[in-house]
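Q: What residues go here?
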């Protein structure tokens, strides 16, 4: 069952009630220490590549699938960096669906392929310096990128 099918199936039973969605985001970092973001087609804002796990899917497999779908990249040796969750990850969509995000954040420093936007979830990809990130990042992206910035400045 795909993530879309799973969401539709669950929503048909519970309506718009809040749920926890497990998923991933990828912090793709180039040799200059810049992070890859995509301009999202749904909001027009910038965010990390990632998404919701399919029913029963391992989060590592979710990372590989989502990163490839959204950017054309296949990660090599991704590192589980942190988990972002909690009340500040709450989202209420325009259709009324409510959810909290439980997101495994992976750092990807090596990959196969060349970045390309998929045109479905994102219409542009760009590397940004961690000290010059675009405004309007979502709560998960903001927390993950701040943790990365702090971590890289310490090491």
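A:
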């Amino acid at each position: 069952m795909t993530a879309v099918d799973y969401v539709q199936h669950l929503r048909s039973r519970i309506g718009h009630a809040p749920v926890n969605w497990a998923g991933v985001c990828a912090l793709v970092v180039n040799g200059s220490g810049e992070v890859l973001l995509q301009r999202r087609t749904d909001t027009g804002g910038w965010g990390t590549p990632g998404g919701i796990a399919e029913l029963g899917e391992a989060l590592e497999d979710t990372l590989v699938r989502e990163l490839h779908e959204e950017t054309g990249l296949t990660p090599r040796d991704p590192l589980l960096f942190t988990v972002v969750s909690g009340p500040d990850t709450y989202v209420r969509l325009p259709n009324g669906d409510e959810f909290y995000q439980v997101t495994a954040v992976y750092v990807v420093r090596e990959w196969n392929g060349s970045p390309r936007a998929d045109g479905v979830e994102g219409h542009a990809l760009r590397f940004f310096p961690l000290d010059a990130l675009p405004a309007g990042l979502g709560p998960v992206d903001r927390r993950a990128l701040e943790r990365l910035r702090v971590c890289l400045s310490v090491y």
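A: Context that may help when evaluating the design: The chain has a mean pLDDT of 94. Helices lie at 3-14, 59-71, 139-154.
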